[in-house]
Design goal:
The protein is mainly β and about 70 residues long. The protein has one domain. The chain contains no helices and five strands. The protein has a three-stranded antiparallel β-sheet with strand order 1-2-3, with no helix packed on it. It is globular. The protein starts with a strand and ends with a strand.
Length: about 70
Amino acid sequence: MAAFSYTNAKGQAYYLHTKEVTLKNGRVQRIYFFARDVRADGSLDAVPAGYEVMETKRTNMPVLKKSNK
């Protein structure tokens, strides 16, 4: 499976991943993050439904944002 890639305004490629984390209160939450390399665990081949990719203004890092559509 090929990981979803996003190239920012600076021309740097990032790959979308997901991970299950346990919060301090014991609740398990799924997080999404971008990495500069494709990792064996957690790479995604598409943006999850209800989310869209945006870039931060200061660093041009890609982030997922809940879609308003």
